[in-house]
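Morning!

As promised:
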Amino acid sequence: MKVRVGIIGATGYTAYEAIRLLLRHPHAEVTAVTSRQDEGLSIAAVHPQLTSRLDLPLQPLDIDSFAQQCDVAFCCLPHGASAETVKQLRQANCKVIDFSADFRLTSVAEYETWYGVKHPWPEQVGQVAYGLPELFADQIKDADLIANPGCYPTSAIMPLAPLIQAGAIHCEDIIVDSKSGVSGAGRSPKLGTLYCETNESIAPYAIGAHRHQPEMNDIIGRFSGSKTNILFTPHLTPMDRGILSTIYVRPQAADAKRVREIWRQTYRDSPFVRVVDHIPGTKHVAGTNFVDLAVKEAGDRLVLVAAIDNLIKGASGAAVQNLNCIFGWDQTLGLL
Amino acid sequence: MKVRVGIIGATGYTAYEAIRLLLRHPHAEVTAVTSRQDEGLSIAAVHPQLTSRLDLPLQPLDIDSFAQQCDVAFCCLPHGASAETVKQLRQANCKVIDFSADFRLTSVAEYETWYGVKHPWPEQVGQVAYGLPELFADQIKDADLIANPGCYPTSAIMPLAPLIQAGAIHCEDIIVDSKSGVSGAGRSPKLGTLYCETNESIAPYAIGAHRHQPEMNDIIGRFSGSKTNILFTPHLTPMDRGILSTIYVRPQAADAKRVREIWRQTYRDSPFVRVVDHIPGTKHVAGTNFVDLAVKEAGDRLVLVAAIDNLIKGASGAAVQNLNCIFGWDQTLGLL
Amino acid sequence: MKVRVGIIGATGYTAYEAIRLLLRHPHAEVTAVTSRQDEGLSIAAVHPQLTSRLDLPLQPLDIDSFAQQCDVAFCCLPHGASAETVKQLRQANCKVIDFSADFRLTSVAEYETWYGVKHPWPEQVGQVAYGLPELFADQIKDADLIANPGCYPTSAIMPLAPLIQAGAIHCEDIIVDSKSGVSGAGRSPKLGTLYCETNESIAPYAIGAHRHQPEMNDIIGRFSGSKTNILFTPHLTPMDRGILSTIYVRPQAADAKRVREIWRQTYRDSPFVRVVDHIPGTKHVAGTNFVDLAVKEAGDRLVLVAAIDNLIKGASGAAVQNLNCIFGWDQTLGLL
Amino acid sequence: MKVRVGIIGATGYTAYEAIRLLLRHPHAEVTAVTSRQDEGLSIAAVHPQLTSRLDLPLQPLDIDSFAQQCDVAFCCLPHGASAETVKQLRQANCKVIDFSADFRLTSVAEYETWYGVKHPWPEQVGQVAYGLPELFADQIKDADLIANPGCYPTSAIMPLAPLIQAGAIHCEDIIVDSKSGVSGAGRSPKLGTLYCETNESIAPYAIGAHRHQPEMNDIIGRFSGSKTNILFTPHLTPMDRGILSTIYVRPQAADAKRVREIWRQTYRDSPFVRVVDHIPGTKHVAGTNFVDLAVKEAGDRLVLVAAIDNLIKGASGAAVQNLNCIFGWDQTLGLL
């Protein structure tokens, strides 16, 4: 019998991508999809790509009935709303992979500062596995609740954490300049993500003030003796999907060769990490769960480059990978 | 009588853009267009947008006849080839605005290291006005030969030079992370600039090794007591045009307010510089000669943002602006 | 003294484009901009491209004060709302170029059927000049109210009307398959025009049911003895701007050569019509007021191709051209 | 043991897509990849997306060694060159799925007229199964050589053939207006497919003169008593992939409801055909082997709409589907 997965908040891009991946999964199936706004519509009315693939009605979320229909919830609600729902789902004994930021940080205070809301389930904060199996496999295995990583943090943590841990780079001088496709901004109609606003234009936003910056520092800080000081600048880029992070660091007696060695050693059992000699672009990983990593020496700095698909390794692929880890399946099921 | 401008190497994107701008210029006209490869074709056969606008045949370059037809040459040849032609044009008494990099650097040795060719006219190197009227008006006025700036350098020099000059930022810790539209790569068919290679993808290239890096250091260095040390990373971005440079600097007792003051003071007579409070995107300047500048404080750094149209302020608009300066016309003629 | 133009409903894409064109116009200036939703903001806050170019606050529309500030109104309101305002503007003696469809059709009944609203000023319907100067110059000259044409109709009427008039094609078998950039759908946030919905996708909509179909039949019918029967299918195309109409007609003893002759004869004094031998793409006319027309023979049919910029010849450029005609200026002022 | 598939001419977009699909196939594996121009490089050097997925060197084609390494050839060579190679492969007893047009038409004379080359293996012409399993399953089953359909023809034949067969539409009045992503133009560097030439532009080409027009007539003609007369106009559309065909037909006592019935009946066992009530866009089928079909009534015509992914159902997905049919596997293996 297949593991039954329900998608909470199923009308967005990450939800669609999760469904698409799960339809290909040998041991999992999608058994419920919820939406407040589009209740009653079929999932294919909202995502026409799913016509003939998945025939489920969007239902309003009722925790009890959901927990009877599903073994695992992919919770795609916004922060704040998510933690509240996650709490109820856990009480109903449903495993949860939470796409929101609600359980990613270890500090309630930090969370409340950056997210501007009171945390609905503060006791749980700091107790939840961060869903990067490449770095936190032990915590994810057998977990009942997983904080699915942010898209930008994934592209920064994966190249940086092993180098920080190995002492190969300085903690206090790290710049992460990231470029993301527009799907990262979600599917709610807003002026800023209209085609004619974003097409043929690139622009930074939330410079040094994006909520993913404390997430990067929090997670990478776990690999460091001292706190990291990452300056993060995201850019909205005229493409559907993909994140390219160009990361400027100062080496400590390490060169490009050493960086590649550390990466290859750390990720030797990680099928989705590719340490490449060429310079990757987001198209190389589009539609996949891969993380392509490269490094170049440039004067007294090293420039790290990471490319992911923001909707897959940066969201739904990671969720499926976490699902695989929770159930002890091969990490790559449904993902290659 | 109008000033007669000829375009040498008229089949590329910058050449087209120059023609388009000059067609709107009250005191200039295009009187000759040259091309080796497309000799005999009409200019509109190569640029269909020019149908009914400009009726000139592409001719092979003959210096003498060209100099009789034109008062000024816009020389759009590749480096190396350009300097050779520029020399002949100057000997034939034609004023020249050189779009190539051949006369931008002050050191022949540096040029030959980065460009890998012997300089065809080394005596002239270091004697040529750098065509940023906002910073080098005195040299440009009455000049007979102008080195039209590189597109990326324009986006870096304009925000950085005044701050370096004012001592507001450190010289030795500057990162320029630039994102350019594909037109910057030229119009020659190459795998890397095919639609399906660049669309839906962003990637860095020539990290710390692009020829515009020494140009930035050379020009900005003129405003500094000590040599600057700029690390430059360009990115190919899926859009036709535009450069967005995100620049990471360390302030010296300066904050964002002070930076804006310095910019506004330096550029108080520069109609194309806009110091803005919002964060600019390339679409705000597309099709214009404007440079939009913004600054944000982020931890112990300042993040400068500059947006230009790479084909206009980054190439052909700058050339027309230089033309205006040479002839003592209002800087904005043909450009607003 | 310059003619004073006010823009009513100034926050959309066509309004911006109109302002951009008028800023370059030698005899006109923008003296007022109105918006209900963004009242109080500066126009540059809504259109950052206008920073340093136009310094006007968005005001709510007050007819009396508007009529004192402006000689001419560019009315960019939605249908229904527009006619009501136009009526008041005319009563206040303001000339009006109406961007809406309210005065394009000759029949109130037809209008009310297709637009689903009661016409606010039915007496005026059928009395208003249709703003295609290439075909209706006599009516436009000295007019006080002009119905600015629809974008799709412009791309269909200009190639078809002369051929219908000359009897060169059959009236009853015409298919107009049009492809439009996304800006045609306006600037209000809607799911369907989000970047990730329209990018990398093309789809038809309103097949045989678009409101521009009766407009095409109405206007072209004026050149025909019998009613035309046009089947019109628009497609949303992943690009900012441009309309390409591929038109399938049956010739009546006419071949491609004859079609070109008719076009060249009809449009011999029309500086914006280019009859070309190559096949035009929308990029050839992007940013311009040109209409590129081509024809190919294909079996027993002729295929006509028309390319325009939907925001310029399809909207704001046409408005400026009409302004020029009303005031007896050269048609091309502000437009080349 | 898996069926061994070799890709001949492996550097293009369809070849990559075929490899990507085969990597997911449970019963097939890629065992050889050939290229004349990039001999010696690894396949991942040419397609960086394949890094860590497929480790094979590009080899020059040697028929004997290829036939020993492979049970089936996916032959991605250009027309003319393909037939020659196909002949040798068949003589070496290798099954072949031919991506070229060499065996699609039934008449050698027609082939030589449209393709301008002498057919290298004329005896075979007219003997080869046309690889649309939805319509030619009987011929494909057990075939050793399959003519993989053209991308545009797939999008026209699938909606039209059943209607022609049922007598629901007229044969002699059919217009196919197709819009294709740029990948259909191949991966060889050419001016016309550079990013800056095709981005932000749409244009028709080869109006009534494209080689896929006789293919449509030939294949659809097999379902008709009389010859069809299709007028076909392709358009280059600014997107990577996808074909949208808008097809104008005249019904014979059939309405939209009847058309859907015929489609549903014909394709009742075809898992990749979706008859939909909404209007499909290419994004709904991007990355899939689906054909989405819709119909609208419009005056005295019916408008049929078909959407496919040109690289999948229009090329490599069809090839894998044919492979499945040849070996008697479920049609969907590797494709969902």
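The radius of gyration of chain B is 19 Å.

Hope this helps with the figure draft.
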